Amino acid sequence: MRTVYLGTSSFAAAVLRRLAQSPHRPQLVVTRPDRPRGRGRRLAAPPVADTARELGIRLHQPESVNGDEARARIAGAEPQTVIVCAFGALIKEPLLSEYPMLNVHPSLLPRWRGAAPVERAIMAGDERTGVSIMRLTAGLDSGPVCLTAAEAIGPRDTYGTLVERLQGLGGELLVRALDQHPAFVEQDEAGATYAEKITAEDRLLRGDRPAIDSERVVRALSPHIGAAVTTDRDQRLGVWEAVARPAREGDPPGGELDLDRAVPLLGCSEGVLELTVVQPAGRRAMAGDAFLRGQRG
């Protein structure tokens, strides 16, 4: 089947790699323009652009996929299906209706529609998530679904470990959908939940929550975004790994960050959070005990 692939993220790049190994190898890949990244703000290509170049697939990086030039490039590839995976921009009419469009979404729809389904599933303490192949429509991830596959969320899974399994699952499920043309089934709107984009407030660990909730936030945002706590000097300390445990005698009360222990401790409404890997501003990540030794030195 002739396809065109629209994607941007590392997740989308992994799915593209699997698609390119199938009989449905894309004739064209469309991704977002290069953007400034990192502390130096140097231009960097999206992961999908790098993968398309590596695979030798024609690449287009328009400012708008809905513009006349992008639509002409897609039309020139003569796709039978357009595939969308973590593209990161809204696809509008008339492009939306010009081709059959399949979307690869990393959740068990209708749960966790939206921008951050993997992070929100971990934050919520879900025991499983998965991948859905759906028909792209004007609604937010609300189109009919033709295939799903579930994946367990382990108690120590981070975004990084979980998304690695989901992107492999997504690639296999997409190829199966293109091979087999399964029937589409409308989603049950009663079960819909929404995975809002991660904000600065979401990243901040607070002592008025149970420790297990804050541990899930840390796991959900590692290794790509990162959680943080605020010190008594009103400075932010990045947190990349943490462990929730029951409170013991002498532990800090809820809301207090204690930097006078073997490892940094955040008192919570229930239990305590041990901050085992942290990152001071302007420095590299380090073990929590090493950070405290540096503070005392």
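the 2nd protein, sequnce then structure:
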Amino acid sequence: RQAARADALHERGLLPDAEWESSRAGSERAEAEVQSAAARLEVARASLDRANAARDRVVIDCPIDGVVLTRNVEPGQAIAAQFQTPVLFDVAEDLSRMELHVDVDEADVGQVREGQRATFSVDAYPEQRFDAHIVHLRLAPRTVQGVVTYEAVLDVSNAERLLRPGMTATATIVTATHPAMLLVPNTALRFAPPREGPFAPRPRDMPTGPHVWILEGTTPRAVPVRVTATDGTRSAVTGEGIEVGVEVLTGTAREGAAS
């Protein structure tokens, strides 16, 4: 309207040329701004259509069937996959089969092999023993406070769903089996009778190799043995003069004035 009035005044000679040209320039700028706004509107509509299409295509599928253990996002939270894929859920594929990860001391790792059987217990069921077997023995060491261990992965059946992820377990790995062996407590292999007193053995009866002590009447007698295996508490032994039922000495007891 301002441009139309300026044209009418200019035709009648009532408006200087400079003002008329300024009015025409303002009109053209306004028309250009309208066209620019219309173009921005089209771009915004295209962006909206593209966003709606992308939203319709976004479907988050879990790669496995299982049980959701933890949820790391909330409804409506923005997720951006930039340098690494965001973790939305922790899913357990099958709780009927689980893995037990145990640390094997470097002194014992030489006896551990894949396929060996093991048993373990958890604090939730202290009186129950669960069966497992080793499926992997890692080569990479772990050093914690100067102690070197190697990780063993055990396969565990959890058909009763008693075990849960994250439980602390104490495992015993069977590295060797010796059937029908004669066992003695390790304290019997370390026992030494008193060197003085009425029950002291004669010096020539003192043995030099592995042995256990038995009583002949009231006198201790050493029986040489050969140790074939040990579990740290008991040892399998062989030797003449020792058989099932023979009492071996593991310590001394004091009763009154006599010992």
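The radius of gyration is 44 Å. The first helix runs from residue 2 to 11.
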